[in-house]
Automatic annotation (TrEMBL):
This is Glyoxalase. The lineage of its organism: Bacteria, Pseudomonadati, Bacteroidota, Flavobacteriia, Flavobacteriales.
Length: 131
């Protein structure tokens, strides 16, 4: 039987991006851990953001694509409760080893995590519509 760590790593898939000997710890963590989790959880992030936008009176859905991009960035950067919820969705798929690495440098990793998520949502803004 697989351990929890083995199962988590298997469902997340391979690293995304180039990792070299010169890669910094943060870059390595981003490509080995964050990117695969963001890809794996993509559909959930889209639904979570749509739900957030609906609960914020739905004005997001009336905006132009450019204004939607700005809204995504502002919502994730300024709404601490929402940002912490998104972080939880990501951290929940860390292995114990990754979590121990994360807590050593959580500030820098959090910045990378949120920037990657913002860019991912922006690149899929057309999917952020009420069905």
């Amino acid at each position: 039987m697989k351990t929890k760590e083995e199962a988590i790593l298997e469902i997340r898939g391979e690293s995304i991006g180039i990792i070299t000997e010169q890669s910094s710890f943060e870059e390595r963590f981003q490509n080995q851990t964050l990117r695969p989790i963001l890809k794996f959880q993509n559909d959930l992030f889209l639904e979570v953001f749509k739900n957030y936008a609906v609960k914020q009176k739905g004005i997001f859905f009336t905006y132009t694509p450019e204004k939607k991009m700005s809204y995504i960035e502002t919502a994730i950067q300024r709404d601490i409760k929402f940002r912490n919820s998104l972080k939880g969705i990501i951290i929940g798929l860390f292995t114990i080893t990754e979590y121990k690495e994360y807590i050593q440098n959580s500030s820098n990793i959090n910045k990378r995590m949120m920037n990657l998520l913002i860019e991912r949502l922006k690149s899929q803004v057309q999917l952020l519509e009420i069905a």
